[in-house]
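Researcher: Go.
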Amino acid sequence: MKYVILVSHGKFANGLNDALSMLAGNSEDILSVGLENGKSVDEFTALFTEKVKDISTDDEVILLGDIIGGSPLTNATNVLVNKGIKTVILGGMNLPLALTTVLMKDTVSLDEIADQVLEQARMAMQEFKIVE
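Model: Structure:
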C-alpha cells in the first residue's frame, strides 16, 4: 500500500486531513499527526510511531510536512527510515499539494511523485485579484 502521511506543528496536519476527507473521501491510507502545543518532541515521536506501527517495508510512504527541518518532519523521517520504509519527503505542505498527492499517489511511481506533485502545487498557487 502507498500511504500519505501529514505531519505538522499544532493541529494543522489533522485539520488538513479533515479537509482532504471532504474533497477526496476518507481513506485508511491517509494519516496525520501533529506536534501539539505543550507536547514534547518525544511525545510526538511516540504518537507517530504508534500511528505507523502497521506500515511495513512492503509499503511506501509520501511524507508531507509543514516545514523542512522542523521537529515533526525530522522525527517522522527518522522513524520511517529506522523502519526501513521507502519514503518520499516533501515540505511546505498546503491543501493543493496534499490533495494532488492523494489523487496522484496510486497513478504515479514513488520515484516520480515529487516532481509531479510539486509542479501541480506550484501551478495552484496564484494571486486572486478582484477586478472592479
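Model: The beta strands are 2-9, 30-35, 60-65, 86-91.
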